[in-house]
Amino acid sequence: MDNILLAAVLGLLEGLTEFVPVSSTGHLLLLGHFLGFSSPGNAFAVVIQLGAVLALFSVYAAKLTRIGLAARHDLAARRTFFSLLLAFLPAVFIGLALHKFIKEVLFETPVLIAVMLILGGFILLVVDRLAPEHPQHTDAMKLPLGKSLAIGFCQCLAMVPGVSRSGATIVGALLMGVEKRAAAEFSFLLSIPTMGAAVAYDIFKNRDVLDFSAISDIAVGFIVAFLTAVFVVKWVLSYVGRYGYAVFGWWRIIVGLAALIGLSLGY
C-alpha cells in the first residue's frame, strides 16, 4: 500500500476510534502489525494522536473558555476544573510508574490486545444493558468529586492496549449512575489533559529516536485524524444519548475475533 494512502487510512482509523469505546490504540497497533507498518519512535502514532487531541479541544474550546472565565467568581466552575483534575491525577502517577513496561511489553503483544477488545466488548454490552433508566447524574460538569476520582482510576485500566480509555471511563461512569450522554462527555473532557500529557511525555521520552523524515505521511495522517475526530465527537454524544453503547461492544468483539483468527493463521 502506498505510504500516503496508508497514512490516510491510519489517520482515519485514529479519528474514528479515539473517542468511542473501542480502543484506538488497539486498532492502530493491530493494523500496524498486520500491514507491517512501523515508525521509529512511534513518531507517526504520536502526531496523529495529537491531531485527535486538538480536534477535541477545538470542539470544546468555547465551553472550556466560558468555564475558565467564570471560575474567577463562580464556585461551580472552579469545581468543574477540580473534578477533572482529580480524575486526571491517577493516570499521571500510574502512567509514569509503568510507562516503560506498557510501551515495551504490552504494546508488543497483539494477542493480548485482541483478547482485551473481546473482553471489553462483552463488558460494554452488559453494562449498557444494566444502565439505570433514571440515572443519578445527568450533567458531566457536576459529578461528585469522589466519583470523578473513581472514574480517573477506571481510566488507568486503559494503559493495557485494547481496553480503551473512553471505554474504561464510560463504563466506570455508567456503573456509578451517570447518564449515558454525560458519561461520554465527561470522558471527552477528561481526555484533553490525559491525552495531551501522554503525547507530550511520549515526545519527550523518545526525542532522540523520533523520525520525522516522512513528514508528508505524518502530515496526511494528522490532518485526516483531526477532521475525522471533529465529526466523531459531535456525532457520538447524539448517538449514545439515543441508542447507547451496544454497537461499540459488538464492534470490539468482531475486530478482536478477526485479529485472533489472523494471528492464529500466522499473520
From TrEMBL:
Belongs to the UppP family. It catalyses: di-trans,octa-cis-undecaprenyl diphosphate + H2O = di-trans,octa-cis-undecaprenyl phosphate + phosphate + H(+). This is Undecaprenyl-diphosphatase. Pfam families: BacA (PF02673). Bacitracin is thought to be involved in the inhibition of peptidoglycan synthesis by sequestering undecaprenyl diphosphate, thereby reducing the pool of lipid carrier available. It comes from Pseudogemmobacter faecipullorum. The chain crosses the membrane at residues 41-60, 81-99, 105-127, 186-204, 216-237, 243-265. Catalyzes the dephosphorylation of undecaprenyl diphosphate (UPP). Confers resistance to bacitracin. GO terms for molecular function: undecaprenyl-diphosphatase activity.
